[in-house]
Request: fold
Amino acid sequence: MRRSCKFLMRPTRHQVIALTACLDDHRALYNAALEERREAYKRTKISIRYGDQSAQLKEIRACIPDQARWSFSSQQATLRRLDKAFRAFFDRVKAARTPGYPRFKGRGWFDTVEWPKDGDGCRWDSQPGPPAATFVRLQGVGHVRVHQHRPVQGRVKTISVKREGSRWYVVLSCDDVPAETLPATGAVAGIDMGVASFLTTSDGAQVGNPRHLAASADRLAAAQRNLARKKRGSKRRRKAVARVAALHGKVRRQRLDGAHKAALALVQDYDVIAHEDLRIANMTKAPAPKPDPDQSGAFLPNRAAAKAGLNKSILDAGWGVFLTILAHKAESAGRELIAVNPANTSRTCARCGHYAKENRVTQAEFRCTACRYEAHADVNAAINILRAGLALRDAAAA
Reply:
């Protein structure tokens, strides 16, 4: 089993300068390789591959001393990153989706450098100092202290350095991580995701929606207004940008922490968990404009403002992050996770199976028009999700 660990780094001032230079040089390599691919195809209709550009690295390092101070394997990883972006582009073209041609990376859009193998230009837990401290050695940077808050399990495969605002993190990708199987509980549950409540189980338990972004909205708005007043390129503007990034980083960490805690509680309590197979990207699309047939160039109201508010609430809840974390924890704990089509689960009676739009009286109230069954709307939906999940499991086993 492969797992990732993320630890906060404690670089010195000189190491921060070196890490920043490492990012800048790898970004320059990425952009130069992208430019070469674009120009070669534009002028000669020849497609340049990863192997062609990797073979040029020795010449590049010989001509540009700044590139030679970094690990050869990390530069190969940067070129593979570009190659992966082009493969994804061609896959989208073949699937008739919006292509999205690979873009040049600005200073704020290239924040990660990867070393593909522990020991090749990097070394985890190199221990040059006190035995109680943890260090990672990076070629061209030195031994950087790491705040290791939990043990690393398995074998370290790749090492990445990531910048988030003013913080630096080391990300370890580990192979052969032993599964931490939990004892069976004999309990099953369906969960319904929502905005009023983050999730509701078929047992009636609810987890509130903390609305982290909404809680920080006033401070973010003030920081954004302060940023708008600053002159571009000034030192004060850089500080204002860092302030906005720090606030967004705090919201992201709060959301991740809540998702981890909610997912851990579910895998500890239930052997089988059925959840909605949500298409969040489709759910948060802006409504299409409605042309007015009676007036050329005019449009009818399409409730775009209300939909924008709902989209913001959905994204603030972080359903996608939570479901990803839940899948990882369920796999490690030996739990079964079942994704269910959510269509009509909130309007179908969990007692008699009658479906009607009128069954959903309000956001929280469900009253069946056929059998008069009453329940909380989210609990009713969670029961339907559980039944659909168990039916899928039985059909797969048959």
Residues 235-269 form the longest helix (35 residues).
